[in-house]
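Exercise 7.
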Amino acid sequence: MHLQPEDGTPATRPQRWLARLSFLWALAAVATPAVFAGLTSFAMLGLGLGAAAVTVAAAYLFLSRRGVRRWLSLVVCVAAPAAVIVGYAFAALLWVAVASAALWLFAGVTARYALAGDQAWWRMPERPASAARHPFLIMNPKSGGGKVGKFDLKRKAEDLGAEVFLMDGPEPVDVAAVADQAVGRGADLLGVAGGDGTQALVAGVAARHDIPFMVITAGTRNHFALDLGLDRDDPSACLDALSDGVELRVDLGLIGSRTFVNNASFGAYADVVQTPAYRDDKLGTTLNLLPDLLQGHRGAKLEAYADGTEISGPQALLVANNPYGSGDIAGLSRRLRLDRGTLGVVGVQVDSVQQAVGLLRGRRARGLSLLSATKVEITADAPQVPVGIDGEAVTMSTPVLCTVRPGALRVRVPRERPGVSQQELPLDWGRLRCLAAPRLRRRAGRRGLPRAPAPRAGLSGHVSEFAPEVDHDQRHEQLDVSRRAGQRDDCL
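Solution. The predicted structure, written as tokens, is:
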């Protein structure tokens, strides 16, 4: 009997041995300094931790101060890690540190290869898709530095039978209205070649009419496309979804009445991108505004309530459509799944050097809030607050309500796409432990430890027949039960 992942597929022998090997590498990484440096290993550890604390403190002062103190802090920020290297070299222990770091690297590589085999954990379920009779694609020729023209996307899409609308006029285009009109004329698939903000607006229309939505990676960053496993280097590869596609059912975020596919950000980032000078000088504007924002001299004071849990006075708040890896506050990493029916919430409050250094504690840091929720309410001491919605700067009246629509969007993607590489998988040591030692888990089960229930239709994106009439309130309740059970048993 083997360990059973979420979809009931047994863990393979290579997975189990890779997981065990990753723990051996990690143990060797810890043991190497102790064996070859003896008591000096404690000094090595202390020096490394001290340098990390100094580096973080100097980085905070660089961002929160002006004038001479800012540039002195930058010098210290660069010099602290260099001092550690020099110290190890003088003590003839540099090779020990390098060897230990290499062993940690090996542990990470083997761990990710082991986890990559557990596809039910990170891969969204696919459904066969029939060809669209009247696909309608909206393309922005200016997006991504002109990728629409560079990759000849309009002609290629039309050769595959799609109707293409180019956003090339002098006046701003209401893309949601254009998409609505296309559906009224019989469009049975909507797609966008453009940035994430445009993707979100048209995705909302597709979800409302329960027709498939297609993403073409012609934007600058295309985080939504990254999380769908699409090819961001070759937008024309996304057009394969028209001829040989499969369908994913993913969640959508909702802020007020507006849809978002990635995240909504409040606080420091939103204040910076609202500034008119930001587009012409991003770095200079950011460095100029951050001192006032971090010291509370500028911007509204925020309060947030995530399913009733209070986050008091965050300087930066990120509400994501499904959680990002490692509690990413900037929304720069990726989401392995977009079908978990939950919002990822990250709040950061750093008022002092001590709190900045405390962030080294990760999830236990005092100024860091990492939550999952189905509803987040943001209030402020101002009637309106700036918000960054999928990279678009807007202003919204308070309070602002963010919710999630589980399984609301049918996404048509190519059958063959880059997907997730082993290097991009987060290191989940709890799941890795289950792969490495399944017998320990079975013994715990025989002692009466509660097991998570088997997934039901409607959970984690498995919507029965992808029915649009799913009761979302009931699905939230089911998801909450499943998450609580999963917290008791992270092996399933």
